[in-house]
Amino acid sequence: MSAVSASSARPAGQRFREISGQIGWGIVAWVAGIAFFLPVLWMVLTAFKPESAAETWPPKFTFSPTLSQFRLVFSGWGPYVTHSLIATTVSTLLVLLLGVPAAYALSVHPVKHWRDGLFFFISTKMLPIVAAIGPLYVIALKTHLLDSIWLLIILYTAMNLPLAIWLIRSFMLEVPGEMLEAAELDGAGRVRQMGEVIMPVISPGLVSTALICVIFAWNELFLALNLTTTNAATLPMFLISSVPQEGLYIAHLSAAATLASVPVIIVGWIAQRSLVRGLSMGAIK
Amino acid sequence: MAEVNYVQATRVYAKGTPPAVDALDLDIKDGEFMVLVGPSGSGKTTALRMLAGLEPLDGGRVEIGEKDVTWVHPKDRDIAMVFQNYALYPSKTVAENMGFALKMQHVPKDERDRRVREAAKLLDLDDKLLDRKPKALSGGQRQRVAMGRAIVREPRVFLMDEPLSNLDAKLRVQTRSQIAELQRRLGITTVYVTHDQVEAMTMGHRVAVLAGGKLQQCDTPRQLYDNPVNQFVAGFIGSPSMNLQTVPLAEGGVRLAGTVLPLPTAVRTAASQAGLSELVLGIRPEHLHLADGTGELTGEVMLVEELGADALLHVRLAESGNQVVARAEGRKPPSPGQQVTFHVQPDDVFAFHPVTGARLAG
Amino acid sequence: MTVLEDLAPPPKVEVRPRGASRREAWSRRLPLLPALIYTIVVTQIPFLVTLWYSFQNYFFDVPGGAHWTGLSNYKAVFTNSAFRGALLRSVIMTASAVIVAMILGVAFALLLDRKFLGRSVVRTLIITPFLVMPAAAALVWAGPMLDPNFGLLNYLLQPFGVHHVAWLSTHALGSVIVVMIWQWTPFMTLIVLAGLQGQPADVLEAAKVDGAGALATFREFTFPFLRPYIELGILLGSIYLINVFDAVRLMTNGGPGTATTNLPFYLYEEVNNAFDVGGAAAAGVVTVILTIIVATFALRMFARVFQFEGAGS
Questions:
Q1: C-alpha torsion sign, points C115, C121, C126, C130
Q2: Option in B52, B104, B166 nearest C313 (CB)
Q3: Which of C252, C139, C123, C190 is nearest to A259 (CA)?
């Protein structure tokens, strides 16, 4: 039988090893994080440099910062940003408009061949759009849609729709079946059920879906490059144009790149969890 | 030799919060089946995990076989644990699950297989289950695999964390006796955690009742039932639970149902010494004997629950209006609305301090 | 807790309710039709047109429009070493980027799964490359990072004896692959991390009690548990990466020569520089057929990946 005794003493070195192990791996993680972030940091840093300080050897870490590059970008990017904003928001809205009913028809009240439907949609994503770019150009030319913002809207919608349908479907499947049954017993028809039961429950999911669509549309280059020139040129094209044939451009490019990327970066930082779910098409919750 | 000792063992999760386990002193004899029982949040699972080495101690120590194991890694404590949700290795077969610890100990394959098959036989696990993966098994089978995983190791101490809680009622009763029988056969010191006092009473050699991180009483089931040391234990042990009523003191006893119920002198002395004007009276339902009009306590039957062999009467006592539960013969119980009287033996009456809950003169 | 779900779980309501009338069937189809018709029109028509043009001789800069030429475009594709080269390079680029990104992804996920000071900050830092606009990433790497004269990388590698390397000339393919890895490691990290955080804690505790050390735990439990996630990451990553265009176009423009020309870029060049609509169409069709073969494979994997082994109980 033990008398009142003090706490047992920890063997020498155990706590030290535990803590140093913890700190050690923490340091490795920090090094990895900083290494990965470095190019982004460098991009943002360079955006504040006057051109003379941007193309130097060795590269400058201290300099007198200026906003002139940003001002330059702001003065030049007007139409590009507008086109990007229009193409992105309108296509995303269209995606939601088309995608929500489609997801409903593949989840809550499914059609007979819902599996085939789902896989049809995903198959369009797997076929490379690049393969059809030539004929696409010709079609656009013949329908007078070349260099039109509507062409981009149409194509971005088609690009994001499959992903959205899979995603929204995964959210709809989370609505408890009993909730819908209760609504049905209360006299709500299908449309009512959709509006009053399903939509409120999946609205955070719709936001995540919209976010993913916005990211992909905003960043899209290939289609914009090939099918637009001036009237519908989007932000990625602006970036390209900021690389002139000659002359100094690095700081200006960095400023443009920073401004172009910042919206998506912020959105992504905030919605990290939705990001995973969106990219895995709803597989990972 | 594998006795287990908790010496002032303490676990505090966050500074400033009350301890999850508060200075626990518990001695478990070699080969004993000790049950830790209590409501959720009582600290019983934490205490078990401290013994396993899965929770660190913030004070005191834990000993196995008289050796201080407070800072010893779980794998070096020579213990085996059955987890509440079984924690079977999903990517491994049943045989691999059961043999894993032995594999980690570099036991040669033949001996591993032999011991696995022995344990499987002991637990009535069919041979063909050995090659299946956990997800292909039923709940009961998984439970047995979890037990088998522990048995195979032939440890000094078995730790079990509510292993029956995921089984349906019938299976639970069956498995309960099987576990008790198994422990008797193997003779290995076992620490068993449950929230179900029926399990505690039927399986344990001794039972430790915990509440709020503190040990309330550690005794044999019989002693816990007959001699609860405080109000909590009295109300926790026994089903249906003891009737506990706050009643005012009167000349010679306490006032209940319009009459004075006599209390032993010792109790009355203890009460007046503590300066009490009222106390908590405890009477078990089975000690309220239905008397045909001759009982001291009268009341009206509000509800009758017929259980077949017995009936539980929910009675509203006269004058004071206290609601009590009484056990009666199942054959012809009184009907709701009927006036009844009860007789109580003075020895069957418990008295507790209204504030501290401590038993008054036991 | 994150859970890896069946990618195509069955719907809630029975597919063929009692007394399924034609009306019921149509009322179920109706919501699907707009999206379905839209997708068919916008995606299938261009491919049908592509198919049509693949049998035509059609050069933009040649007057007279398109005329039938049978299988000669296809013959050209199969004999054209440029196409095969682009195909090979696509495979190399995608495979190496996916594999390295996944290895790094697992490593980072393991690091981020532990608790340490500033863990959420590090997590945010690691995922940022993925959020940078690919066009921006390509241009920033091409200029401020990799330039031989003032690029940051040369500066950082100086102590290791590296002097003013013209990365985009001498190590073009590697540079492009590095940018692909840089942008997609976060994706792999997030997927694997979601898996790690979904690992049931009691299984790991049981392993601890059974005597498994850190390495044994990873080998026997964590890695088998992560396999579906890793496979999902590789699958999805390949789908996204095989179509990489921005980095190739903006960093090296396919060069030097054709050193970094992958399939998307090859097709782009055919249309933009050679103005060969017919040839590009044929190459496109061949690409599509190859993709269908790989995709059928991949789709079967999709279904298989989710024979997910659940927790013990």
A1: positive
A2: B166
A3: C139
C46 → closest Cβ in A104, A139, A267: A139
Dist. CA C151–CA C130, nearest whole Å: 21
Which of C191, C174, C197 is closest to C104 using CA atoms? Answer: C191
Beta strand B189-194 pairing with B157-161: parallel
Would you call C312 and B52 a contact, using CB atoms and an 8 Å cutoff?
A: no
Residue C250 DSSP label: I
CA dihedral B23, B24, B30, B33 (to 10 degrees): -170
How sure is the predictor about C313, in pLDDT bands with cuts at 50, 70 and 90?
very low
- A and B: number of Cβ contacts within 8 A: 24
pLDDT score at C9? 67
List of residues 6+ apart from B267 with CB closer than 8 A: B351, B360, B361
- Mean of pLDDT over chain B: 91
The CA distance from C263 to B307, in Å, is 78
pTM for the complete prediction?
0.84
Q: What size, in residues, is chain A?
A: 285
A11 touches chain B (CB under 8 A): yes
- For residue A47, pLDDT over 50 is answered with yes
CB B343 within 8 A of CB B295: yes
Tell me, what's the pLDDT at A58?
A: 82
Q: What's the ipTM?
A: 0.86
Contact A11 B7 (CB under 8 A): no
CA distance A5 to chain C (A): 28
Give CA angle at C75 (C70, C78), nearest 5°. Answer: 150
Q: Which residue of A has its CA nearest to C232?
A: A280
> What is the per-residue pLDDT for A3?
41
pLDDT (tens digit per residue) in A220-264: 999 898 888 888 889 998 888 888 766 678 888 899 999 999 999
| CA-based radius of gyration for chain A | 26
CA C210 to chain centre: 40
Q: What is the token pair recorded at B166?
A: 């995921």
pLDDT in tens, B219-231: 999 999 999 999 9
pLDDT lower than 70: segments of chain B: 1, 362
Q: Give the integer Cα–Cα distance in Å for A89 and C273.
A: 32
Chain B residues touching A4 at Cβ < 8 A: 8
